[in-house]
Amino acid sequence: MNVSGDILRGHTDAIILSILSKEDNYGYQINLEISNRSNGLFMLSEATLYTAFKRLLQDNLITSYWKDGLYVKRKFYSITDLGRAYLSEAILKWNATKTIIDEFIGEKK
Amino acid sequence: MKDKIRKYVEYQFRFQKDEKTQEMIEEIIGNLHDRYDDLYQKYQDEEKAYLEAIKQMGEFSELVETKEAIKPSWMDMSLVVSIILAIFGLIIIFFHLLTGIIVTLLSIALYAIASNHLYQLAHYAKVKEMDIDKHHLLISKIYKFMKTSFIFWAMSLTLIISSIPSKLLIGLSLYYTFGTLNPADLESIVRISVTLSAIVFVISSVLISLLFYNLYRRLNEKYIFLVGRPHQESYLKDASSLFMGSKHHHSIFSFKEHMTSIITLIVVILLFFLTASSSLSQRVTVGFLEFEYEYINVFKLFSNYPFAKLFIFTSLISLMTSIIPFIRKQKALMFNFIALSFALLSSIIVKIGMAGLYSDQSNQFVGINENYNISVALSIIVMIAFLIVLIASMIQKNEHLKWVKTYIVELITLGYSFILFLISMTSGLYKDITVTDGVDRIYFYVPQLLDESLLVMIGFGVLIVSIMVSVSSLIFKKKVKFLPYIVMFIIIIANFLIRSGISKIYSFSTNYDGVTAVYLIVYVLALFYMLMYTIYLILLRKTKKKQV
């Protein structure tokens, strides 16, 4: 099945924040979770992922810290209070948008 | 294999040594290790897992700001500016020899300084940093524009050398025969000097071509010695790809980013030539003949009057400042603003200087062009227009000043349109009527001239349209985006039509058409600027929408 990459990419920030709202995580695991939860239909490119991190850090929606791993250090990201507020708002907006889109092009009841 | 991953990633970012990039490299390596481990579990093949991990990682160049990675240094930009000056120098020589010589020499000096610095850097990269890639890259930069620069320098130098004997001959002849030379002798001197110039041109073109060819050949040999392979051909293609971008790298020259600076530079150069003409006429006696020379340029007044020197000084600052934004992108608008302010200042200096000369007691200058006041006033108006748009751009870019932009910029632009509207209503024409106690001067306004010229009538019609656009938007309270700019476009068009129409009525003045032609260029530029600025705003909004 084809998915609309454009629509999904428009919600990259919210998707990342939603994953981080459960627990702190790092780049590869975040992308892996996106891939697993979408049954492999959607995966962010590294460029998109790092650009999103950079943007979220700049807007103080997430923070980062380093953790030592087995061979290498890993950069973990953590959601901030501002990030949680942003996510709540994004969820409300999405639900409202979804209702409208469902009304027109959603599955027929 | 993990070392191989590290080496691969570090190689991709080898030109970036800043802390942020180093941090990102560590992050990428960490994530790539995990990806590799997962893929190894899947394939049980180290090589396949490595290749797949790198492949899934995607294009590295997208990860960092490519423009930052190949961010041009002042040396790169100096080379680019040098070649632009080389081309300009050749063109300027045809109009004004001294300025052409200065520009060409400036171009050669810039190239020499930048090349020398690049060469030293390349040497440092090889000896101290042991980075051969960087060494070759820096050396090739020196050679990239060399052929093109050599061609233009050779042509410019040939023209300069060939013009010197004729200038000398005429100058010396006039000096030694001052007051006794008759027109027939003058004609023969001119003929001899032209022949002499042609001969010198042929000889110097051969000699200079040979000189530059040999220099180029020797430098190419030096390149092979330094790098170990011949320099790639198609320098112009490389140069254009630096500006236009290619599939390997983004352009270093984003038109959108540099648009304001390009237009500023063009306006500064144009205004320089516009202001350089003094519009003074001078009475000169050669033997028994008396000439009245018109169109004396400011350079000819250089030795006697300080304003001419001040003009050159402020113009040079203006020109130099307008080039800075191409080298330093930060604060580009501020530098554009300074450049335009100095250009405006130089115009005012010349205007004041002219007034001083005209009232000169020695009566050396017998007249000032009647349209001079109009032309200076117009040039100041055009400059102010640019300054306003620049301020608007500054405000647009400053987050804290966005509220000002929302309310003020449109008002300023509309205010400017209103001033332009008023100016469009004045024709600059007058008529002297003798009355009992002297002479009365009657000025004509545009509405009084509608019957005289179709162009004036059309221009006036367009002006009315501009008022209708403004008023209708107020009545319907419809928020028309970019309305002030649209109104300004219309008014500028109207203004131009009216000026053209008036020039036809004012046909007994010999140079009114000339002034109109020059202002046509300035107006077209102004229009182009506004249009580009509008497109820029649209693009900006679209980009923002996309980001959202």
Describe the 3D structure.
Chain A is an alpha+beta fold. Helix content of chain A is 60%, strand content 15%. In chain A, helix 2 (12-22) crosses helix 5. Chain B is mainly alpha-helical and 548 residues long. Chain B is built from 18 helices and five strands. In chain B, the strands form two sheets. Chain B has a three-stranded antiparallel β-sheet. A two-stranded antiparallel sheet of chain B has the order 4-5. In chain B, 29% of the residues are buried. Residues 66-70 and 507-515 of chain B have low confidence and may be disordered. At the A-B interface, helix 3, helix 4 and strand 3 of A face helix 2 of B.
In short:
Chain A is α+β, with helices and mostly antiparallel strands. Chain A contains five helices and three strands.
Number of strands of chain B: 5
> Which structural category do the helix and sheet elements of chain B fall into?
mainly alpha
User: If interface size is counted as residues with C-beta under 8 Å from the partner's C-beta, which chains form the largest one?
Assistant: A-B, 16 and 20 residues
How many DSSP E strands of chain A?
A: 3
Number of helices of chain A: 5
* Number of distinct helices of chain B: 18
Mean pLDDT of chain A, nearest integer?
82
- Read across the widest sheet of chain A, the strand sequence of neighbours is 1-3-2
* Helix fraction bin of chain A: 55-70%
Write the layout of secondary structure elements.
The complex is a heterodimer of chains A (109) and B (548).
Chain A: H1 5-9, H2 12-22, E1 25-26, H3 27-37, H4 46-58, E2 62-68, E3 73-79, H5 81-105
Antiparallel strand pairs in A: 1-3, 2-3
Helix pairs in contact in A: 2-5
Chain B: H1 2-12, H2 19-43, H3 46-57, H4 66-69, H5 74-95, H6 97-127, H7 132-144, H8 146-176, H9 183-227, H10 235-244, H11 255-276, E1 277-286, E2 289-297, H12 306-327, H13 332-358, E3 365-368, H14 372-397, H15 402-425, E4 426-435, E5 438-445, H16 454-475, H17 483-505, H18 512-547
Antiparallel strand pairs in B: 1-2, 1-3, 4-5
